[in-house]
Amino acid sequence: MSVLIRLAIVATLAETGFVHAKLYLGGYRVIPYIGPMFLLQAAVSFAVAALLLFAAPVVLRLLAAGAAAGALFGFVLSRTVGVFGFTERGFDPAPDALLSVLAEVLCLLLIGVLWAGELRRRRPAL
Amino acid sequence: MREHIEEQETGPEGMTRRQLMRHAGWFGGAVLLSVVGGEVISSLATDATAASDPNTLKFVQVSDSHIGFTGPANTDVTASFEHALDRVNSLGFRPDFVMHTGDLTHLSTPAQFDQVKQMLSTARTDRVFVVPGEHDSVGDGGKAYRQAFGANTAGDGWYSFDTHGVHFLALVNTLALEKFGHLGNDQLDFVRKDLAGVKSDTPVVVFSHIPLFAMYPQWGWSTDDSLQVINMLRRFSSVTCLNGHVHQLFTKTEGNITFHSATTTAYPLPKPGTAPQPTPQVLPARQLQDALGIRSVTYREGDQLLALKEERLT
Q1: Contact A47 B33 (CB under 8 A)
Q2: Which of A7, A122, B103, B157 has the most CB atoms at less than 10 Å from its CB?
Q3: Å from B117 to nearest chain A CA?
Q4: By the CB < 8 Å criterion, does A29 face chain B?
Q5: SS3 letters across B60-85
Q6: What is this structure's pTM?
Q7: For residue B52, pLDDT beyond 80
């Protein structure tokens, strides 16, 4: 079961990395500050997804959660107060924004499920 | 014995040295792979080669030179504009054109227009284009501006042109200025007719002084009838709107349209909402140079978006 969850985390992380890399290559790279942040998100997501194929130690889970939560935080900021003067509206660009948000939310949920399952197993039976 | 050793190696948080090394190894692996991945992705981007490709469109946007301004925010705007033009001439490529997106002068006097025209002529480029800012029509409805720069334009100074497969529109939204920028029916008709003959897959670039998007309406940083133009632009696959006026970098995307506000060569203005009014900001000399700049833009046929690069005057 935990292997399946781990692979699902890999898939969601790869998806958000793919969307960010696609948008970076499609033109976001020219936007000050935003371009480098998209590149960083994509690179970290791909790297952590690749390593998660082999194991899911705490440090990788934290990195995966950080990549997903960071991207979600950036999404919310860009729809509200802006990120370094960059703003977007709704789920534009479609469908990339929606796909990325769904993947990131799912990634965070799966990491939570994985952690909760392990904590339950470690707890001594009464 | 082994248990004893492990116990000795346990750190204050209950992690053994071996576990710590294992975590460090995973973290190091993630960092290494991230660097490699980043290199691979950025190598797929072709910005670096675009500027040296002779078929690539290359142009420069300068904005808000405010020649004639006197004040502590910049005690020598002429020197700053000269510096900006030196930067244009040392970009490492010859731009196909230079576009000044308004507020060329501070008070619209013929002498100021003459000075800015002479200065712009020192830019090493084939063509220089301009659109007026509200400071270019002080007291005369833009008459002095049109005398200096109005050749080959329609209406009150608007025009369009094509180069390298890109369609350019240069709009005037500062002449009927009250609180907001305004285009007016004559200009909207011009845009409608102009775009009618342009194919939907042609990249479109729109220049204006005041933003065509609602950047900060409380300060008048928007154009009240721009929605009509934006609706006409929706059918195009790629639209880039470049404006000045706000003296700071700002980017917004809305569907197929990307809006980029440019910085100034004269003096910075406060960020939206951080001051009671958008008045010139006084900065220490070194910080002032950081706030001023020009923008180089490249476009290679087939790309979805134009590539922008901000160049500071430091």
Answers
A1: yes
A2: B103
A3: 30
A4: yes
A5: EEECCCCECCCCCCCCCHHHHHHHHH
A6: 0.77
A7: no
Same domain, B19 and B82: no
Say if B1 falls within a structural domain. Answer: no
Average model confidence (pLDDT) across chain B = 90
Chain segment A68-102, per-residue pLDDT in tens: 999 999 999 999 988 887 888 888 787 899 999 99
* Contact list, A30 vs chain B (CB under 8 Å): 47, 305-309
* Long-range own/partner contacts, residues B80-86 (CB < 8 A, 24 or more apart): B80/B265, B80/B266, B80/B292, B80/B313, B81/B116, B81/B119, B81/B265, B81/B266, B82/B119, B83/B265, B83/B292, B83/B313, B84/B265, B84/B292, B84/B293, B84/B294, B84/B313, B85/B119, B85/B120, B85/B122, B85/B123
- Residues A84 and B136: their CA atoms lie apart, in Å, by 30
Output the domain CATH number for residue B118.
Answer: 3.60.21.10
Give the DSSP letter of residue B285: H
Q: Per residue in B153-203, pLDDT tens?
A: 999 999 999 999 999 999 999 987 677 899 999 999 999 999 999 999 999
| Residue range of the domain that includes B116 | 49-312
Which chain B residues touch A46 with a CB distance below 8 Å? 33-34, 37
Q: Which residue of B has its CA nearest to A25?
A: B45
pLDDT for A94 equals 79
Q: What was the pLDDT predicted at A125?
A: 58
Interface with chain B: mutation pick from A30, A33, A34, A46, highest number of B CBs within 10 Å? A30
Query: How far B20 CA lies from chain A's nearest CA (Å)?
Result: 10
pLDDT in tens, B1-27: 444 444 444 455 567 888 889 889 999
The CA distance from B230 to the nearest CA of chain A, in Å, is 15
For chain B, what percent of residues have pLDDT higher than 70? 93
Residue A24 Cα, gap to closest chain B Cα (Å): 8
Residue B223 has pLDDT above 70, yes or no: yes
Single-letter amino acid code for the residue at B213: F
- The answer to whether the CB of B265 falls within 8 A of the CB of B84 is yes
pLDDT computed for residue B48 by the predictor: 47
Query: How far is B187 from chain A, CA to nearest CA, in Å?
Result: 28
Q: Which amino acid is at B272?
A: P
B34 with B132, same domain?
no
Cross-chain Cβ contact A63/B23 below 8 Å: no
Question: Mutating which of B47, B253, B271, B308 best tests the A interface, going by the most A Cβ atoms within 10 A?
Answer: B253
- Chosen for mutation from B23, B26, B247 (greatest number of chain A CBs closer than 10 Å) is B26
Domain span holding position A17 = 2-122
